[in-house]
Amino acid sequence: MRYLAAPIGWLQFWTFTVLGILFFAFLIRAIVRRPKEAGDGKREAKSRNGIILQSVAFFIAGFGGVRLALPLFSPAAIASTAAVVVLMSGAMYLFAASSGALGKNWSFEARTLTDHQLIRTGPYARVRHPIYLGMFLFLLGMAVALGHWLALIVAVPLFIVGTSIRTRLEDRLLEAQFGDEFRAYAASTPALIPKLG
For residue 106, which phi and psi values (nearest 5 degrees)? Predict the structure, then answer.
């Protein structure tokens, strides 16, 4: 699989490694700070199918060798490192801001609590599912950092299918709980890609 990887430089590889560790630090922080779930509420177990597909997409984009062949400060290495910084910074911002805005509402699986709140502040003012947008940026950042561009041919469609499963189920739960309030929010706020302007 090494021959399928594009050449990369040490700078982009280590930049991704450091930013990836920071991303997972935000994830661990969100898990630790999340309050214990109340027993009441609704859960959608089928969202695990979406989680599995997204995980497979990450595995495909990350699996394989790397070709550390670019000179440290070559234009290609610098451009790739800049792309990794932009993508990973976006991923970290979206996850940290979104999980912070969600508070006790944040969960791996699609579920609502009896006292669930419809969050429309922070990144949720621009998109309904900003954490998945952040995950997509992470996926792209990883592929750029490792030189696994070709893997995106399979990884991106899998990620999109997994994400659509999760967003559809989450939206259905929120619509069932909040009715017209959620329908108005969904009509004015895109699912994943923010409107420009």
Answer: -70, 140
Residues in the chain: 197
> H or E stretch including 150?
none
With both helix axes pointing from N to C terminus, report the angle between 47-62 and 152-178 in degrees, rounded to the nearest 10.
160
Residues 6+ apart with CB under 8 A from 58: 138, 139, 142, 155, 159
- First-last CA distance in the chain: 42
Give the domain 2-26+45-188 fold: Four Helix Bundle (Hemerythrin (Met), subunit A) (1.20.120)
Indicate the angle between helix axes 130-146 and 152-178, nearest 10 degrees. Answer: 170
pLDDT tens per residue across all 197 residues of the chain:
455 789 999 999 999 999 999 999 988 888 887 766 555 678 888 899 999 999 999 999 999 889 989 998 899 999 999 999 999 999 999 999 998 898 888 887 888 878 888 999 999 999 999 999 999 999 999 999 999 999 999 999 999 999 999 999 999 999 999 999 999 999 999 999 987 76
3-class secondary structure, 173: helix
HSE toward the beta carbon, residue 103, CA cutoff 13 A:
10
Q: Residue 111, SS3?
A: strand
Domain extent listing, the chain: 2-26+45-188
pTM to 2 decimal places: 0.91
